[in-house]
User: Which sequence fits this backbone?
């Protein structure tokens, strides 16, 4: 195996407009777990985390199990895929660490900024919720972290476009606050 | 327009991809007569009223959905996962 150098998708410096900050998050291990029929609970038991119901996140220690679609969850920040041998026969396991870019958006106008790009009413969301949705035309895993705080995952190949679209929405929300 | 995905909840129409009439679920047997295949592939009703079609929750959970709706009133009457219908059929 060649010795590969891990690089961030953007290497971008955080930007702030009108109290809303967009930043690139540290790249964590992302492993897609697609349980075989009827095995979701067994997959969760092996990991010590409840296999998440739709639109929810299970947390334990540094690892999170994030619902990511029909019969699909992402293990984020947990054991590396090659150390998940216990899941053999229970789930299809795929390393997707280098397939996604992870961004964070924080600060009071965050919901207004996302309202320009995401077709969901995000007022009143709370930690523990996740949404499979879209950022414009880009696929999005949107994790609620708490008040005015979200983690956004989209395809790494679209990182620059996502960053541009979000910053543009931030600038426009900021322009309305004068 | 909103569709209530059985997994994701109520979602905006732009998250979904429209495929076509729900007739696509009733595929004829491989040895069915050409008339059956002709009907399956090409002939569609155009009802003023209740109709059923297939939608894909493309920017969502990735479920195929069978949507029952009314073309006159624009009511969405039901949204069912195709996978659930398949499972029920296998259980029968
Ligand atoms: Zn859905």
Assistant:
């Amino acid at each position: 195996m060649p010795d590969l150098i891990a690089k961030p998708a953007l290497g971008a410096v955080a930007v702030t407009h009108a109290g809303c900050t967009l930043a690139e998050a540290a790249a964590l291990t992302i492993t897609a777990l697609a349980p075989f029929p009827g095995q979701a609970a067994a997959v969760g038991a092996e990991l010590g985390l409840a296999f998440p119901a739709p639109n929810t996140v299970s947390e334990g220690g540094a690892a999170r199990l994030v619902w990511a679609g029909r019969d699909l969850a992402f293990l984020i920040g947990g054991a590396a895929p090659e150390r998940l041998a216990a899941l053999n026969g229970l789930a299809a396991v795929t390393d997707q660490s280098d397939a996604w870019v992870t961004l964070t958006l924080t600060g009071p106008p965050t919901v207004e900024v996302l309202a320009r790009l995401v077709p969901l009413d995000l007022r009143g969301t709370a930690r523990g919720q996740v949404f499979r949705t879209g950022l414009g035309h880009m696929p999005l895993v949107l994790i609620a972290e708490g008040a005015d705080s979200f983690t956004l995952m989209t395809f790494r190949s679209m990182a620059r476009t996502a960053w541009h679209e979000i910053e543009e929405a931030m600038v426009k929300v900021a322009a309305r606050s004068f | 327009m909103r569709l209530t995905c059985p997994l994701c909840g109520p979602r905006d129409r732009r998250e979904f991809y429209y495929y076509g009439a729900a007739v696509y679920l009733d595929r004829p047997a491989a040895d069915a007569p050409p008339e059956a295949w002709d009907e399956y592939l090409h002939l569609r009703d155009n009802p003023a009223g209740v109709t059923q079609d297939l939608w894909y929750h493309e920017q969502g959970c990735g479920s195929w959905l069978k949507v029952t709706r009314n073309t006159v009133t624009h009511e969405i009457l039901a949204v069912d996962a195709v996978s659930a219908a398949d499972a029920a059929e296998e259980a029968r």
